[in-house]
Structure to design on (249 residues):
């Protein structure tokens, strides 16, 4: 199966108090980007990294030092993950992949077992528009709403001011999209509003939107901690401890 990986990475890392683009922040001795390139290299044929205009040269230079050949796409304004993915979509579509994987640049805690399961599940559910791992977490940042049949019907987002349950089902910042899903993402974008709390256009509401007409398949992460993204210095320390435990095990 031919896959392309999109890494939205136009964030500045300001909450991390970083002096480099977020994707170049060091986590346990490697940049976030290096962690991701290593994690997914056996599964994807090409990588598209979405960068801000000022970060493109630095990201390209870093990839050269790693011996990695990646495509960059520029997100000119920080208007959210939906627009970041749309910026990469033409380059991804030109690669004529069977599936497009997307991972947020700070989701470096995803375990190899979860990546391998994503590859297996998407082949077992070839009709699925989207396949994604999820995790049940206390005090969730994201929570998917489902109907009695299990279909995802909505998504609550704490960053947008939604009232959250004590325990929720969260994404892990990793998604597999069919070519059709990538195509209709543009259709979805024509009507999606900006978030009331962030004034950004998020990708996650696309999941219940497409689930109305096309199957979406989820499976549990190997470890709920995999769903954590690195947004603050505390997150960074937590993820570094998690990675150290995996190496020790």
């Amino acid at each position: 199966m031919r896959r392309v990986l999109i890494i939205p990475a136009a964030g500045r890392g300001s909450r991390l108090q970083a002096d480099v683009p977020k994707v170049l922040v060091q986590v346990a001795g490697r940049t976030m980007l290096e962690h991701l390139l290593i994690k997914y290299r056996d599964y994807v044929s090409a990588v598209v990294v979405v960068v801000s205009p000022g970060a493109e040269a630095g990201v390209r230079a870093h990839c050269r030092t790693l011996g990695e050949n990646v495509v960059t796409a520029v997100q000119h304004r920080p208007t959210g993950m939906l627009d970041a993915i749309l910026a990469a979509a033409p380059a991804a579509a030109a690669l004529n992949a069977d599936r497009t994987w997307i991972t947020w640049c700070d989701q470096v805690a995803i375990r190899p077992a979860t990546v391998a399961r994503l590859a297996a599940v998407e082949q077992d559910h070839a009709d699925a528009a989207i396949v994604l791992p999820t995790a049940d977490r206390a005090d969730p940042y994201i929570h998917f709403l489902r109907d009695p049949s299990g279909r995802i019907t909505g998504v609550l987002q704490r960053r947008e001011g939604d009232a959250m349950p004590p325990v929720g089902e969260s994404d892990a910042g990793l998604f597999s999209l069919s070519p059709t899903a990538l195509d209709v993402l543009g259709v979805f974008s024509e009507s999606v509003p900006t978030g009331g709390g962030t004034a950004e256009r998020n990708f996650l509401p696309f999941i219940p939107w497409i689930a109305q007409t096309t199957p979406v398949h989820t499976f549990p992460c190997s470890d709920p901690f995999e769903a954590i993204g690195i947004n603050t210095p505390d997150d960074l320390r937590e993820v570094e401890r998690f990675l150290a435990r995996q190496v020790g095990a």
User: Anything to note?
Assistant: The mean pLDDT is 93. The radius of gyration is 17 Å. The domain at 3-133+172-248 is CATH 3.90.550.10 (Spore Coat Polysaccharide Biosynthesis Protein SpsA; Chain A).
